[in-house]
Amino acid sequence: MQTFFISSMHSLKYFLPAALLVTLLTSCAPQYFSPVSGDAFTRRDLQALSGRELWHGFVFNGEKVGFARLKIEPEAGGQSYTLFSEASLRIRFLGMGKSVSIRGEDRVAPDLSLLSFRYEQTIDEKTLALEGGIRNGLLSVVQRSGNEVKTSETKISSPLYPSSGINLYPVLRGMKTGADYAYPVYDPQTQSIVDVAQSVVAFEESRRLGIEPSFKLETRMSGHVAESWINLQGETVFERGMGGVLITFKESERGAKSFLAEASMGKKDLIYDFSLIRTDTPITCPRKADFLEAIVEVPEKTLSPLQSPHQHISPQQQDKETAWIYRIHKIAPDVPDAPRQALNAKDRFLFLAPFHHIESDHPEILEAARKAVAGAQTTRGKVERLTSWVANEIKDEPVDSFSALEVLHNRKGECQAHTMLYTAMARALGIPTRLAGGIVYMEGMGFLYHAWAESFVDDWLPVDATFNQVPVDATHIKLVEGPDWISLLPMGSVIGHIRIRNIRFH
């Protein structure tokens, strides 16, 4: 979960029970709010907001899973400020407890523009640390993970802002209904510069819940939309993300931290329960499926369908949601007299390029790739050997990895680890490769969210280095694609909101 969902301001007089917030925000929020008349306007500066420590609780899919803290401290002379942020989450996934802690220090100018930062994220016992700053139009970042140290420099043409201050930006610029904001932030989660767009869509209150008149702010970032309610003092009252599945609400320090004891006793596998897509028709032997036809219902205005030689999609209109008929072939049907596909120079460069998480230019990646495909004479042969090597060498375990190089060293990880390493190795060999995200059927369960790759071999060839498949079986339903992990983030907007029915397969 990103700092996109945990930024906030000042303390709240009313501590709302988590269960009530979930009921409110996952179903009928508009019924609990009413518009407030008048030309409301508020503007605050960092000096007025300094010295306060703010605590929030996280609720995910109806269960409290963590807390967040934010504090703003001025430096001597008032020429800069430091935003201290912290978040802690505990959750169960596939029967295992997962712990995530995030700490950040963002040094900013009085206008909130970023000067320097320190960031540390620990998942279970694995830590990623970032340190960087901006000078003379250059963003410099040092990344440390285990024994690995990487540096990067990026030219910037306009001020950057910290992701921890996303809800501060409108407050400092002045908030009124109808106002819009757009600006770039440095996102340490993806180690990239991303665009943020915000709109103040209403000024409203909820007397039933004891919520004072507040601005309703919509924030769009990396394919996600969050709603925040910010009062006239510049305080974020609460937030709603992922269609109401993720809730952030203000509470005391004691209340925020109380989840630690509760989480240690929790038995619900929240991520699995939330993301699993159950179907009326079970699919037997899914890894052998050659064809799948199904109606897939997705929320309106989220993801556009992705056509490919392996995946044909046609629309079927519904009342509130768009349903799509997916027909997926493991082997793409022959198209008589179809011209041979080719990548243009721009796409070839993009899908061969290294990224922070995909170090295709690292000597160790190249050496491992060459050894894995030794003896292969064709591009297709290299893809098959590389897929088999990753599937056999990387143990499938529910552990997180920060980069392909780390996966190569640790030799274990989930589907994203297999996909990162395969993609890096394929690109190192000069094979254009992109990431794909979507859902795949798991026998005895249903559809689960999954990542795989596609390599260009006369056309895009789906490759699954987790299941050792070239091409992938027909239960792989692709929802998003792109050169790196940022491209897959929009998939988060539909998790928990997809339904699948009328399945046929063979």
List keywords for this structure.
506 residues; alpha+beta; C8orf32 fold; 16-stranded mixed β-sheet; four-stranded antiparallel β-sheet; 26 strands; 18% helix; 41% strand; globular; disordered N terminus
Question: Your description of this structure?
Answer:
It is a single chain. The chain is an alpha+beta fold. It has 2 domains: 3-272, no CATH class; 286-505, C8orf32 fold (Roll), CATH 3.10.620.30. Helices cover 18% and strands 41% of the residues. The protein has a 16-stranded mixed sheet that branches. The longest helix is centred in the C-terminal third of the chain and has 15 residues, at 379-393. It is globular and about 65 Å long. It starts with 17 loop residues before the first helix and ends with a strand. Residues 1-27 and 263-267 have low confidence and may be disordered.
Quick take:
Helices cover 18% and strands 41% of the residues.
Please render the helix and strand layout as text.
Layout: H1 18-26, H2 29-32, E1 34-35, H3 46-49, E2 53-60, E3 63-74, E4 81-93, E5 96-108, E6 114-123, E7 126-135, E8 138-145, E9 148-155, E10 161-162, H4 169-173, E11 180-187, E12 192-206, E13 211-221, E14 224-231, E15 236-241, E16 246-250, H5 253-257, H6 259-265, H7 270-275, E17 291-298, E18 311-317, E19 322-329, H8 345-350, H9 363-372, H10 379-393, E20 395-396, H11 404-410, E21 412-413, H12 415-428, E22 433-442, E23 446-457, E24 459-463, E25 477-482, E26 499-505
Parallel strand pairs: 10-11, 20-21
Antiparallel strand pairs: 1-12, 2-3, 2-16, 3-4, 4-5, 5-6, 6-7, 7-8, 8-9, 11-12, 12-13, 13-14, 14-15, 15-16, 17-19, 17-26, 18-19, 22-23, 22-25, 23-24
Helix pairs in contact: 9-12, 10-12, 11-12
